[in-house]
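pasting for ref
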Amino acid sequence: MSYWWLILGMTVLTFLMRYSLFAWPNLRFPPVVRQGLHYVPTSVLTAIVVPGMLLPDGQTWQVSWHNAYLLAGVAAIAIAALSRNLLATIGGGLAVFFLLRWAMGQI
């Protein structure tokens, strides 16, 4: 039963946080807060992707040349830095990932 209270509490907090921006539309953040908010998408995406690259099985660190997830992630970072194109980054990263998995005999 405590899970339901947790879910309900999280729902209420999420609603109140999002509704507050509509309830007070003239609310302005200080420049420091606005500057900090620019880094939120990058940090959230990093927090989601990096554990998958470094812990592909979810339990042990795999920082080696035999980790296709890590190598494809590094390749995707390089493609993104060179091309600045989202579609090229996604397509190139996936192509490198599947080629590495095929070459390593993991497919």
